[in-house]
Amino acid sequence: MDKNTITGLVLIFVILITFSYLNKPSESDIEAAKRQRDSIVQVEAAKAQQAEIEAKAAAATLQAKVINPPSDSAGVAGVENDLKNLYGVFYEAAKGTEKFITLENNLMKVRISTKGGKIYSVELKGYKRFNGDPLVLFEGDKNRFGLNFFSQNKSIQTDQFFFTPSVTDTLLTVSGAAVSKGKEGREKFNDESKQESKSLTMLLDAGNGVSVAYVYTLKHNSFMVGFDIKTAGLKKVMGANSDFINFAWSQEMPRQEKISKFSEDNYATTYFKYYQDEVDKIATTKSETKALTTKVEWVSFKTLFFSSVLIADKAFMNGQVSTKVRGPKDPAFVSDMTADLTIPLDNSGSESFGARFYFGPNQYNTLKQFNIKLDDELALGWTIIGWVNKYIIIPAFDFLRRYIGNFGVIILLLTIYVKLIIAPFTYKSYISQAKMRLLKPEIEEIQKKFGEDKKMESQQATMALYKKAGVNPMGGCLPMLFQMPILVSMFYFFPISIELRQQSFLWAHDLSSYDSILTLPFEIPWYGTHVSLFCLLMTVTNILYVKYNNEMSAAGTQQMPGMKTMMYLMPVMFLFIFNSYASGLSLYYFLSLVFTFVQMFIFKKLIDEDKIHAQLKAKQKMPVVKSKFTARLEEMAKQRNTPQKKK
C-alpha cells in the first residue's frame, strides 16, 4: 500500500468522523425522538387494549344472542356464522348453559363451573370471615383463569367456552378417616391411613381430535387440588411452529379481616418462586408488575392468613405477575393479583402439563410439608429471628395447642417456656447488677475525689475498681442479648399466626387483632380511635419495670439523666405502636414483664447480698492476676522503651 493510498484512506476516515459528528442529533432531537417512540408504543398499546375490549364486547353480544337466539331461521344462521368467524373450530363450544359441580372434602368445598371449566369458588369449611360469614376465598368472576392461544388466526380464550364434565353428579364428596386436632391438611396423616380421592375432568372438545381438558383431583384432608392440563391436536389449529400456550390467572382478593392499620393490607401481595432458586415477591402495599424472565415453579396470591397458589409439577417457562393495591378505603377487596404464565408445548400431539392449586391457610407446618419453600411467604423475620420462630417458638406453640384449647393459656405457658430458657442468663444478670449495686458507695467516692473536671481519670479509676473486684460492668447485658431475638421474633410471630385468628381470651375477641374496650369519638394521631387494654397493661407494667430497674441499677446513672428519660419514653412509644397490633402480642409482652418481676423477687430471696459483698471485699485485697497475653504485651512495651547498651 503506497503513500497516496494511505493518505486517501485517512482523509476518508476523517471525513466520515466529521460528517458523523456534524450530523449527530442534538439532545432536543433525541428527546423528541424518544417522545415519538413512547407515543407510538402508547398508541399501539391503546389500540391493542381497545381491540381486546371490542373483541370482548363482540363476544358478549354474540353470547347474548346464543342465550336468546333469534326466532327466524335467517337470524339463527347469522349467529351460527358469526360464531364460526369469531371462534373457528371452537365455535360449537361457545353455546351452552352454565352448570356447577362441587368437589368437597373435610376441609373445603371447591365449586367448578362448566363455563370456562374453571374453579368458580372455594370455601374453607373450618374458617369464618371477621363478620361470621362463611370464608370464601373467591367467587364467580373474581377468579378468572384459562388458556390463551391463536387458532387459525383467531384469538381463543378458553374461559369463554363451555366445557363438558365427566360426571353427571353435581356433588362429589371425598370421605376418609377422622382427623385429629392439628393434623388438618397434613399429607403425612393421609399417608398413614387409606384416604379416598376423586377426580373430575372438564373437556373442551373442538372436534377432529382437537381438545383441551382440565383434570381436577381432590383428596381427603388436603388443601391441594390437582390440576392437570391436557391438550390434544392443538398443533393442527395453532401451527406447527407453536411451542407454547399462555395460562392467564387473576383474582380479586376479598377482605377477610376487619380493617386495621397492621392487618391484611400490610401483608397481601403476589409471591413467586424461580425454578431451583429463591422465593421473591412484589413489595407489599405497592402496585407493581414484574416480568419473570426465567422458569417459575409457583405463583401465590397471598393475603394475611390465606393463599391461592398455582404450583407446576415441573416449571412454567416464564411469565409476568402483578399486584394492584386497593387499600384500606375499599371495604370489600384488598387487592387485585394477576399471573400470565407460559406453558411449553412439544410435538407429541397429545400433551399434559401437571400442576396443582393450594387453597388454604398460611400455617407454617402446613406450607412447609410440601418442600417447595411455600413457607417462605410467611414473614417470620430475617436470619436469626426467623430461626428462633421456626425452631423454638413454633414447635412449642404447636405442641401446646394439641392439648390446650384456650389460646390465652397457651400464651401464658409459652411465656413461662421462654422465661425458663433464658432464666440462667437472667440469674447471672441479677448477680452482676447486685455486685454493681454493692460497689456503688465506692464508685461515688471515686466520683467525688476526681470531680466533674477529671471525668477520664474518674472512669479509669472506676474500671480499675471493677477489675480488682472481678466485676464485669457489661454482665447485665448478657440476658438482654439472648432475650432480644425472642422479643423481636414474637413481634413477627403473633400478627401472622392463623392459629390465633378469631380466638378469644377475656375481653379480647380475636388475639390476632387488636382488643378494644373503648371507641374514642375522635382519632389520636399514631394511636387510633380505640383503646387496647392489653396494650395499656403492657405499658403500665413496662413503666414500673423501668422504675424498678433504675432503682436497682448500678452507680453512674446520675451521669446520664437523658438515658433515664429515654427509658421511660420507650414504653410510651410502644403504647402508640402496639395499640393497633395483635392483642396476643401485647398479652405476651405483658405476661413476660410480670414474670420478670416474679423472677427478680425469687432471686432477691435466694441471693445473700451480704455474702456477695464480703466476697467482693476479699477479692479487692487480692493481687490482680494478669493474663499471659496481658503480661506478654506489657513485657514487649517495656523492652521497646528500654534503651539498648552500646557495644
Features:
single chain, 647 residues, alpha+beta, Beta-galactosidase, Chain A, domain 5, 10-stranded antiparallel beta sheet, 6-stranded antiparallel beta sheet, 16 helices, 23 strands, elongated
Distance, first to last CA:
78 Å
Provide the helix percentage: 40-55%
The residue ranges in which pLDDT falls below 50 over 5 or more consecutive positions are 554-559
Total individual domains? 3
Count of alpha/pi helices: 16
Assess the beta-strand content as a share of residues: 15-25%
Structural class: alpha+beta
> What would you call the shape?
elongated
Specify Rg, calculated over alpha carbons: 36 Å
CATH class membership of the largest domain: Mainly Beta
Shape-level CATH architecture of the largest domain: Distorted Sandwich
Number of strands: 23
How many strands, what sense, and barrel or not for the largest sheet? Answer: 10 strands, antiparallel
The name of the CATH topology of the largest domain is Beta-galactosidase, Chain A, domain 5
Instruction: Output mean pLDDT.
Output: 80
Task: Tell me what you see in this structure.
The protein is of the alpha+beta class. It has 3 domains: 36-96; 99-378, Distorted Sandwich (Beta-galactosidase, Chain A, domain 5), CATH 2.70.98; 386-505 and 583-621, no CATH class. It contains 16 helices and 23 strands. It has helices at residues 3-22, 27-67, 73-87, 187-192, 234-238, 364-368, 383-403, 407-438, 440-450, 455-469, 478-496, 533-552, 561-578, 583-606, 609-621, 628-641; strands at residues 100-104, 108-113, 119-128, 134-139, 143-151, 154-157, 164-165, 171-173, 197-207, 210-219, 224-232, 244-254, 269-274, 279-281, 288-292, 296-302, 306-316, 319-325, 333-344, 350-353, 355-361, 518-524, 528-531. The strands form 4 sheets. Strands 7, 9, 10, 11, 13, 14, 16, 17, 20 and 21 form a 10-stranded antiparallel sheet that branches. A 6-stranded antiparallel sheet has the order 6-5-12-19-18-15. A 5-stranded mixed sheet has the order 4-3-2-1-8, with no helix packed on it. A hairpin with a 2-residue loop joins strand 5 (143-151) and strand 6. Helix 7 (383-403) packs across helix 8 and helix 12 runs parallel beside helix 14. The protein is elongated. Mean pLDDT is 80; it is low at 554-559.
